[in-house]
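User: Here's a structure from my thesis project, written as structure tokens. My advisor, Dr. K., wants to see whether a designed sequence matches the one we expressed. Can you design one independently, without my sequence as a hint?
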């Protein structure tokens, strides 16, 4: 957990300087504290710490100095009072739902959320009596119409995976607050380098640290940024009892990843825009989804909400006569790759390509997949840091040989 940030520094500075607490050795780089337990100075102090009356670490499931540094730095970048981290992005969502919801409560999400999020909220939580409605990502009126007296949470992701659909964070925050509900935004794709949902009215920002926060495809991590009160009173008790704790080593990796987040997002987004423009003019490509293109349906909103930047993920549909041919052609393009990686992950310096309909969205029913617009010819590209010429040549191999 983190306290509110003190100095008024620029975001670039916070990314490398926030939450640097040096040990007596004076190390310049952040220390990695690998310990599951802590020695207490006295029995009285231990009692106060366990009662929450005194600051101090007690047990690895409840907290760790390296984990706390990551949380404090991410909170600073998101402009949040506090942050609480978890072992993965999905466990951050689970912690949020366990903390906020009870049987009979209702959640509104978009159809286009991350595949596992749809499964968790629509199926797993339903077993415990939590109701959910899935609506269009972009139709503000549909979110409003889905509100019930029991609605406690609106959960949006923008841009979405894999179609990069953009929702209006400010409009959804207004709907949530009028209904007495909270808005959570999954900020995994844009990251605080491009988009800060709390400044637009969101109550909670959720992260998969596995993606751009790490940025080099090494570790799993997750986090929720929110008010100090939500973190301390609603989420921390779940973490303590359910134990979806972030490992200190993973926290250290993502903490260091935050230092280069901004320059990585700028460089990867610039390549993504150039690639999207090239694909848009390619005869073997039917359609490109990228918020930085003027042809994107929410281009203007995306540019206003995302610091004028489309992000590093795009997807495109291959030209095909029907769904079977589309799937075969998409597989052909992916199997022809010699440089880039066929991998369902994203947020790496290595460009990663995936076929969402058979992987990330493979567990969904056909109806859920159709609602999410994940067609058989769709290929997602999470653009990394390779030279643009090499990225294009690698795609051209398959696209030019159907
Ligand atoms: C990967 C991802 C998640 C889940 O995060 P994990 O760290 O894999 O658990 C949630 N939302 C989005 C948008 C993602 O890309």
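Assistant: Designed independently from the structure alone:
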């Amino acid at each position: 957990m983190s306290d509110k940030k003190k100095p008024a520094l620029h975001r670039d500075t916070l990314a490398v300087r926030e939450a640097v607490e040096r040990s007596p050795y004076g190390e310049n780089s952040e220390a990695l504290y690998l310990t599951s337990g802590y020695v207490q100075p006295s029995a009285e102090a231990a009692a106060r710490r366990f009662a929450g009356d005194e600051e101090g670490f007690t047990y690895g499931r409840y907290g760790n100095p390296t984990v706390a540094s990551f949380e404090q730095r991410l909170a600073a970048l998101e402009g949040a009072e506090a942050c609480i981290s978890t072992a993965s992005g999905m466990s951050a969502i689970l912690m949020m739902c366990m903390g906020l919801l009870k049987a009979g409560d209702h959640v509104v999400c978009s159809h286009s959320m991350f595949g596992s999020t749809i499964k968790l909220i629509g199926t797993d939580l339903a077993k415990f009596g939590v109701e959910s409605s899935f609506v269009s990502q972009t139709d503000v009126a549909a979110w409003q119409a889905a509100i019930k007296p029991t609605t406690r949470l609106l959960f949006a992701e923008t841009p979405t995976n894999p179609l990069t659909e953009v929702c209006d964070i400010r409009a959804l925050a207004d709907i949530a607050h009028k209904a007495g509900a909270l808005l959570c935004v999954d900020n995994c794709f844009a990251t605080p380098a491009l988009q800060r949902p709390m400044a637009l009215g969101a109550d909670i920002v959720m992260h998969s640290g596995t993606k751009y926060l790490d940025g080099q495809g090494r570790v799993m991590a997750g986090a929720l940024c929110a008010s100090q009160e939500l973190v301390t009173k609603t989420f921390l008790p779940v973490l303590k009892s359910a134990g979806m704790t972030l490992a200190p080593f993973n926290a250290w990796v993502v903490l260091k990843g935050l230092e280069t987040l901004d320059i990585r997002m700028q460089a990867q987004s610039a390549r993504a825009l150039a690639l999207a423009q090239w694909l848009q003019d390619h005869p073997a490509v039917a359609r490109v989804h990228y918020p930085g293109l003027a042809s994107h349906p929410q281009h203007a909103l995306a540019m206003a909400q995302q610091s004028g930047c489309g992000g590093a993920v795009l997807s495109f549909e291959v030209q095909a006569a029907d769904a079977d041919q589309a799937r075969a052609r998409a597989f052909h393009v992916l199997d022809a790759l010699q440089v880039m990686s066929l991998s369902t992950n994203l947020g790496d310096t290595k460009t990663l390509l995936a076929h969402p309909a058979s992987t990330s969205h493979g567990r969904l029913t056909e109806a859920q997949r159709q609602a999410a617009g994940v067609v058989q010819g769709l290929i997602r590209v999470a653009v990394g840091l390779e030279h643009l010429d090499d990225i294009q040549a690698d795609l051209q191999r398959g696209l030019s040989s159907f």
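When you compare it with your expressed construct, this may help: The mean pLDDT is 95.
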